[in-house]
Request: fold
Amino acid sequence: MQAAATRQRAEQLAATLPPLLVAADRIAATVAQGVHGRRRVGVGETFWQFRQYQPGDPASKIDWRQSAKSERVFVREHEWEAAQSVWLWRDESPSMRYASSMAPCDKVERATVLLLATAALLVRAGEFTALLGFDRTPTTGRGTLDRLAAALHRDATDHAHDSSLPPSELLPRYAQLVLIGDFLSPIEELETLLKLYASRGVKGHLLQIVDPAEEDLPFKGRTRFHGLEGEEACTINRVESVKLAYDERFAARQAALVDLSRSIGWTFASHRTDRPPQTSLLALYQALSDELG
Reply:
């Protein structure tokens, strides 16, 4: 029963992706008017860059001819690897499918729009982008957005990436990683993963998606809450009586995410689904631009 419901929800999300791509491109165009564009030199051409070998680099990337000219070992990289490629991920776990009556859409729809809009801005600037967890080389230029949307479409249909944590992948050094989700996983698990990426020289940006009901707890009286990820249902006789404690725990959770991000030199922002996506998109893109230089 649960598998059938999950499959139906995945099919519904996949059906919305084409209009979401249009919406994302429109949002990106609006935000682009407020930022100064920056284009890379030599987009579409192939360049090589050499740097000294570092622990963790695959042996297949060692350039033995270049290394033979000195006592050091050099690694050869394509332009996109040296150009601080940007990798994008959005959470598609069951908790992201929540939408209260206060929001115009569920969290995964808003996360998808923000991911595609971010990609649209990056493509406009000539940056190389890819989806985390899809084993694809970062690309830029025409067709990139369509390829990303197609990959998300297949992912939604197959519901193969239902984990609330992003996958652990070996990204190019100096890559940037954008993670969009509700980040409801245990903070210890998230901390382990993010510190692993940071230890490899990856810069990251967390954009949390929150439904207004999750932040405000607007319910009154006797209310029964049902979990979306297998949790047992919970009945509270007077929701008002627990609101203060709930607000404190919510604030503590947010503070923990902020502290974690700052401790590894990453950025963190929170976005409510009842608010326009443009403001969060602009802030995220500016944070990316600050790192890209």
Summary: The longest strand covers residues 203-210. The two ends are 50 Å apart (CA to CA). The chain is about 45% helix and 15% strand. Confidence is low (pLDDT under 50) at residues 37-47.
